Amino acid sequence: MSKLTKNKKLALAKVEDGKMYSIDEAAQLVKEITFTKFDASVDLDVRLGVDPRKANQMVRGVCTLPHGTGKQIRVLVLCTPDKVEEAKAAGADYVGLDEYIEKLKGGWMDIDIIITMPSVMGKVGALGRILGPRGLMPNPKSGTVTMEIGKAVTEVKQGKIDFKVDKFGIVHTSIGKVSFEAAKIKDNAREFMSVINKLKPSTAKGTYIKSVYLSSTMSPGIQIDVKSVLE
What we know:
The chain is α/β, with parallel strands linked by helices. The chain contains nine helices and nine strands. Helix 2 (23-32) packs across helix 8.
């Protein structure tokens, strides 16, 4: 038996089936049960008591994680020439317009997020079929279509994430890396959960937050006691 499978077995044994963990315990445990050669992402899966097919029960929003995601976010800004300097000064990785629209049409996707401004949305909107399926389409609701280009770039670089519930009623998001201290994982999880809690649709009936699981890229899921993460 290789060392890794042995470690993996030990890891699985640490997570008790059916047990609810406090966020403090879970943040520590997820670090102990991850055996990857790379710095794995720490993810939250939140199952909500909503019907996402109904427009008035769509849960989507943005959250700024106090300690960031630990990921280097590559930002492309599509803007008019007067905004180029502002975008570059804020730390955008790529800035321009027509040449990048051509690159995107040609299949270039070396980016994590696109920020643009209302006046060029006509051009960007034409890329809907390419950007939509990859979740890269800028949207005023998530703050990625704005006149405040510099501010938007800075926020994204600092750990602002946007999220939305999927068709199964689950919100899945990355809240950090396994290398983070447990306290930082906990802070990020709490911040994210407080944002989710505030977004409860008035039309949602019954229990709103049904379950919360914390896991890393390769680990089993750890069920969290919802109260502990909302305190």
